[in-house]
């Protein structure tokens, strides 16, 4: 059935490019605060910094051209077709589905960087309150900029409450500035991680060494749950570890703790193999069994099995076995359950059955596999059977249902029911591009390749819940075929929406001025792309042009597509020409590419290739491109005439091509008399100490020579031989001697480094040593068991580091390693502070920010013992400080002052009835914050929570604990007692408000009520209304002080006062006819007029007029059955004493008058509907044609005839289409319906 889709013109595209401002800078000296180890970690970023130019802006202009809503331009393919004879799947599918990819508290700062700019974001919940800053924010920013030599822009995001800092400068300076910003503006976080009790000793370490190391490395405070000496706890019993510090430090500490746990807990891995068709039942519907098992173990993997490349009973094997990973005992339990499930399936004798597919159903199969097989999971959940589909490149005529025999019928019916809900629309893309200069099919091919990877297409699929199936490469590359895209949806509405959006998006590419083409030798494509496609992105950003590279490696054409905002043809042309010029500059700087064609008969081509291309590899050491015979045809392009079946084409840098040409011709001449090249053996001598290096690990080097050159290499204590074709033997010998030369240049040195400084050279997770190895191309081994070549060496002493590589690079690496550890040795001064265990606890509770700030500013390492609540409060502990002399002394002075302050901290507990706790805390903690700040306490949430502690919600305790400075604690308790006394004097008042006005007092998500409570300092209790609940209470309770309650009452009564209204009397028998649909919503949206009925109950809905005819319907025996419809007209007779029903229109007088006119028109129209027609079609399949796509057909008939038309919801045989209107209009509507049915043609029904 033809469709016509109308819509607005294509909107102009707007492209916004945001680039980091920066310029090329020379390597700068790092700021003094960084150690050499930190400098080394930053050097890679310094060396990689480069300039980025901002993208030029273009002005958009209106474009005229292709009507993207035209069905003439974008025809819809489809229509009924006869299904071919049923067969096993195997017929090739004419289209292939494209694989398109459609994402606890979080408080770690968000960081992104590019060029010489770094963006650092602090979320609202991670920020320190302004009142706690030691200076105004602007002054702090200026101080940081002066200290680090950076430029910092600070932006507050009002919507989220976050603050963004944009930092410009050298990499080292940016990192230092970010560190200082965290110190001044970030709040502290706390994270708790649960670990097995058996791991506790390894986290603490000998005499607390390990936990102190973790605290020093991450700048956090780590507390391990205490354990009594006489308490026996199983090793697998969970204990809690609390980590306190900034976001980065907490995340790193948690990661390191979990790494220790993973190394100590006994874990195993099990694999289970069984037929793939069992997998869905093992995993359970929607992975329910897997989710349950993963509560017991770390990971359970049951590969997806929804597709089989071969039909039953020879199912394709699964993609992999079932895997279970985790703690040993738990894994064994899960494995047993899985084996039990397999045995249960085999005992039940699960079998397969098939569901035949009509022609229109075959494009719907993809919906079963999308969203991780969601529909298949639904079938499994509802019927206990699973569905197995053919591969996406096979158009099958049946689906496989696998499961219990007694569930067969239910499963097949369920599958058909789900397919009936699927809609498919096919769009031919060649027709709208018929006038393209390069031809309709080549242009459509380029548009498909470009758009199918666009986010806009993924958005259409995601937002409309559809699948877009693109033509496969075989169809795209066929110059004569069509280019059809299928849109698959679960509803007509989704299909129509997706189709309109797709046509609008793709139709924009009918502006051919947006396209241009440039031929670049394929060998230069990698240079145009650049490393990680950075060059392509740079070119695109500069000119708003995207580059589409060919899919095949020997195709030279690059398609340029303008994606800027401008619609001006001249501006598009300039951008495309500038892009071509920039590509030409890139290619110009590369080696000159030449093409040479050799006349070599086709019969000799295999001789030159050799077995697996080995002879060609020897003849072509530089890897120039080699084309045997004619090139592959390209759509819209003519192949070179000189390339025939009896030619070999070489393409590459001229020197390399010349070498390959000479080698090939010399090889042909030397083997001219040989049908196959002669096999020879060549002996050679070498230093026997390099035997292991020549062989490689597990013979890898010799295997590589055999695979590349087809030679057999044998080595024996300094002598060797190579056997193979002459050219291959020569090439292998050259590679071996080149390898030997490299080995002779290698050196090994031993550097004496005290073991305590090895961690400095290794760096965090080996980052420093890896950078040294990459920079100098060396291997650095520390004193531990080695692998490969290292295994043969003698054991290293504890203070030895071995460096291997070329002589020059080894010496450079040795110098840097020596500098690193000596610098560390010079910065190892220490100091201690003796404090009590009680003081340690209060130090972190009262001065955690100062300690964190000290750790961030100081270059010294600060190690504070963990608080042990079970220890004697007067036990003496030591705070240790290590680093440079001045830094150590400064840290000691600061920590000594903090310790003295902690000695003056007190803790008090008061009893307050629990019913007042909520009022003391206030909404979002606002009341409590006001109390604490007014008393001189902190205002950040973490410190406030530590100072005032309420009992847990489930606790029966009434005690509130206040802890901090003694004077502040006394003021807080006094304020709490005052508020409680006020609460005891509150009153509650009840007012009457009509239930229908309650929503005015509640507001969206309770916003109005919250505002009223905040404004008048009262609490308001509004009765909760449930759907369809009758007799809702009108009582609203207001609680507060007498004065506040009085003011709130006056305001509420004024708020719910109803506006003036006008009453219109509507005949009772017409009320439901007018009110049906969206008439009330229409009046409200158009005129802002609401309708009520002054509390008068609604009149009962009049009984529907019934069809009187009882004649039997004709059987569906052929396509002529559509002519045997049943038709009957019944006159409507309203009851004489119906009377009227009041409609009260409320709004402004002008709008009430307009709404009244519209209501009177509706009454007059309803009175005209004096007859009801009943039209029964014998073939219920025809009802869908009457409805049309998205209801478009029936809406058109309604508008043309003025009738109300109701299509049967279930569309079952014998149900009538009901038509209301005048006798003449009803007859006219009937004829329109029959005309639609007649045009729809005959469709073959499903055969079971």
Automatic annotation (TrEMBL):
Its main location: cytoplasm. Residues 187-262, 266-343, 361-420, 512-584, 592-669, 674-741, 745-822, 827-900, 904-981, 985-1057, 1169-1238 form the K Homology domain. Residues 1-66, 95-115 are annotated as: Disordered. It comes from the Eukaryota. Residues 562-589 form a coiled coil. GO terms for cellular component: cytoplasm. Residues 37-55 have a biased composition (Low complexity). The keyword rRNA processing does not apply. Pfam families: KH_1, KH_11, KH_Vigilin. Residues 96-115 have a biased composition (Polar residues). CDD domains: KH-I_ScSCP160_rpt5, KH-I_Vigilin_rpt6. GO terms for molecular function: mRNA binding. InterPro entries: KH_dom (IPR004087), KH_dom_type_1 (IPR004088), KH_dom_type_1_sf (IPR036612), KH_Vigilin_N (IPR057778), SCP160-like_KH (IPR054548). It is found in: Cytoplasm. Keywords: Coiled coil, Cytoplasm, Repeat, RNA-binding. This is K Homology domain-containing protein. It comes from Ascodesmis nigricans.
């Amino acid at each position: 059935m033809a469709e016509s889709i109308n819509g607005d013109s294509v909107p102009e595209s707007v492209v916004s490019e945001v680039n980091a401002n920066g310029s090329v800078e020379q390597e700068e000296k790092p700021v003094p605060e960084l150690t050499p180890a930190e400098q080394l970690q930053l050097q890679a970023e310094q060396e990689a910094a480069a300039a980025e130019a901002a993208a030029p802006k273009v002005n958009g202009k209106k474009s005229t051209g292709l009507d993207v809503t035209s069905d003439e331009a974008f025809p819809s393919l489809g229509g009924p077709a006869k299904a071919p004879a049923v067969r096993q799947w195997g017929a090739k599918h004419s289209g292939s589905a494209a694989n398109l990819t459609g994402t606890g508290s979080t408080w770690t700062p968000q960081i992104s960087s590019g060029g010489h700019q770094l963006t650092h974001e602090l979320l609202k919940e991670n920020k320190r309150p302004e009142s706690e800053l030691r200076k105004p924010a602007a002054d702090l920013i200026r101080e940081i900029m002066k200290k680090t030599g950076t430029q910092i822009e600070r932006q507050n995001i009002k919507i989220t409450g976050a603050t963004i800092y944009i930092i410009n400068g050298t990499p080292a300076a940016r990192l230092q500035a970010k560190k200082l910003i965290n110190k001044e503006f970030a709040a502290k976080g706390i994270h708790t991680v649960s670990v097995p009790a058996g791991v506790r000793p390894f986290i603490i370490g000998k005499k607390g060494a390990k936990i102190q190391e973790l605290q020093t490395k991450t700048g956090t405070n780590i507390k391990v749950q205490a354990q009594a000496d006489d308490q026996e706890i199983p090793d697998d019993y969970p204990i809690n570890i609390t980590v306190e510090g900034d976001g980065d430090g907490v995340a790193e500490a948690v990661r390191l703790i979990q790494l220790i746990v993973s190394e100590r807990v006994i874990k195993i891995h099990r694999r289970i193999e069984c037929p793939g068709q069992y997998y869905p039942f093992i995993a359970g519907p929607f992975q329910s069994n897997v989710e349950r098992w993963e509560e017991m173990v770390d990971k359970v993997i049951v590969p997806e099995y929804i597709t089989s490349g071969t039909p039953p009973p020879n199912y394709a094997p699964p993609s992999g076995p079932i895997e279970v990973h985790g703690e040993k005992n738990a894994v064994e339990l899960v494995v047993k359950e899985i084996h039990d499930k397999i045995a249960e399936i085999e005992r039940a004798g699960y079998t397969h059955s098939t569901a035949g597919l009509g022609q229109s159903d075959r494009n719907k199969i993809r919906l079963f596999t999308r969203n991780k097989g969601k529909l298949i999971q639904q079938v499994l959940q509802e019927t206990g059977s699973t569905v197995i589909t053919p591969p996406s490149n096979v158009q099958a005529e049946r689906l496989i249902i696998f499961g219990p025999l007694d569930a067969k019928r239910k499963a097949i019916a369920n599958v058909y029911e789900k397919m009936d809900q699927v809609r498919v629309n096919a769009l031919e893309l060649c027709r709208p591009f018929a006038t393209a200069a390069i031809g309709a099919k080549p242009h459509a091919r380029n548009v498909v390749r470009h758009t199918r990877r666009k986010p806009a297409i993924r958005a259409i699929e995601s937002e409309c819940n559809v699948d877009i199936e693109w033509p496969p490469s075989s169809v795209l590359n066929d110059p004569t075929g069509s280019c059809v895209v299928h849109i698959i949806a679960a509803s007509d509405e989704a299909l129509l929406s997706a189709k309109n959006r797709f046509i609008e998006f793709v139709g924009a590419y009918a502006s051919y001025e947006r396209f241009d083409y440039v031929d670049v030798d394929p060998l230069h494509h990698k240079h145009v792309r650049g490393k990680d496609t950075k060059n392509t992105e740079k070119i695109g950003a500069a000119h708003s042009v995207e580059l589409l590279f060919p899919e095949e490696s020997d195709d030279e054409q690059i398609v340029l597509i303008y994606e800027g905002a401008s619609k001006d043809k001249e501006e598009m042309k300039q951008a495309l020409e500038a892009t071509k010029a920039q590509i030409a500059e890139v290619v110009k700087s590369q080696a000159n590419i030449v093409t040479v064609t050799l006349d070599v008969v086709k019969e000799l081509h295999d001789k030159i290739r050799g077995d697996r291309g080995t002879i060609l590899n020897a003849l072509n050491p530089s890897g120039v491109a080699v084309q045997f015979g004619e090139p592959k045809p390209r759509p819209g392009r003519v192949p070179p005439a000189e390339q025939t079946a009896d030619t070999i084409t070489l393409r590459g840098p001229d020197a390399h091509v010349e070498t390959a040409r000479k080698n090939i011709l010399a090889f042909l001449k030397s083997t001219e008399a040989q049908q196959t090249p002669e096999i020879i053996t060549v002996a050679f001598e070498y230093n026997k100490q390099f035997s292991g290096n020549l062989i490689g690990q597990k013979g890898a080097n010799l295997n590589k020579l055999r695979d590349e050159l087809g030679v057999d290499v044998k080595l024996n204590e300094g002598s060797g031989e190579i056997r193979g074709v002459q050219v291959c033997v020569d090439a292998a010998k050259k590679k071996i001697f080149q390898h030997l030369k490299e080995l002779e240049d290698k050196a090994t040195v031993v550097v004496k480094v005290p073991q305590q400084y090895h961690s400095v050279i290794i760096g965090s997770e080996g980052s420093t040593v890896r950078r040294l190895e990459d920079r100098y191309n060396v291997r650095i081994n520390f004193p531990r068991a080695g692998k490969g070549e290292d295994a043969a060496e003698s054991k290293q002493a504890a203070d030895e580091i071995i460096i291997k590589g070329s002589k020059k690079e080894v010496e450079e690496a040795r110098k840097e390693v020596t500098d690193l550890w000596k610098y560390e040795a010079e910065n190892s001064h220490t100091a201690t502070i003796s404090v009590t265990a009680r003081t340690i606890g209060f130090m972190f509770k009262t001065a955690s920010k100062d300690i964190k700030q000290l750790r961030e500013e100081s270059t010294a390492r600060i190690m504070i013992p963990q608080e042990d609540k079970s220890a004697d409060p007067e036990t003496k502990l030591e705070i240790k400080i290590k680093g440079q002399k001045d830094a150590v002394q400064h840290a000691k002075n600061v920590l000594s002052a903090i310790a003295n302050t902690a000695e003056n901290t007190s803790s008090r507990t008061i009893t307050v009835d629990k019913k007042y706790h909520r009022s003391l805390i206030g909404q979002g903690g606002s009341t409590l914050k006001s109390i604490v700040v007014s008393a001189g306490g902190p205002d950040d949430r973490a410190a406030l929570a530590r100072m005032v502690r309420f009992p847990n919600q489930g606790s029966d305790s009434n005690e509130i604990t206040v802890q901090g400075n003694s004077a502040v604690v006394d003021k807080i308790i006094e304020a709490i007692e005052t508020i409680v006394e006020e609460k005891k004097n509150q009153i509650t008042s009840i007012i009457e408000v009509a239930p229908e006005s309650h929503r005015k007092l509640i507001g969206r998500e309770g916003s109005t009520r919250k505002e009223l409570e905040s404004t008048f300092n009262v609490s308001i209790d509004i009765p909760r209304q449930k759907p369809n609940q009758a007799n809702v209470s009108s009582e609203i309770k207001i609680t507060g002080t007498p004065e506040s309650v009085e003011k709130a009452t006056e305001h509420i009564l004024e708020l719910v006062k109803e506006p003036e209204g006008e009453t219109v009397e509507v005949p009772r028998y017409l009320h439901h006819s007018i009110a049906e649909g969206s008439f009330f919503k229409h009046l409200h949206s158009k005129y802002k007029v609401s309708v009520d009925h002054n509390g008068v109950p609604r009149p009962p809905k009049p009984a529907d007029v019934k069809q009187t005819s009882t004649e039997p319907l004709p059987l569906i025996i052929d396509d002529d059955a559509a002519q045997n419809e049943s038709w009957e007209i019944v006159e409507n007779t309203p009851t004489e004493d119906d009377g009227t029903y009041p409609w009260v229109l409320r709004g402004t007088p002008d709008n009430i008058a307009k709404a009244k006119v519209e209501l009177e028109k509706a009454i007059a129209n309803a009175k005209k509907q004096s007859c009801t027609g009943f039209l029964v079609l014998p073939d219920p399949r025809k009802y869908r044609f009457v409805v049309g796509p998205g209801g478009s057909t029936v809406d058109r008939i309604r508008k043309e005839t003025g009738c109300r038309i109701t299509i049967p919801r279930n569309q079952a045989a014998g149900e009538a289409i009901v038509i209301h209107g005048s006798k003449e209009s009803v007859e006219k509507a009937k004829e329109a319906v029959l005309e639609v049915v007649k045009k729809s043609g005959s469709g073959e029904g499903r055969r079971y």
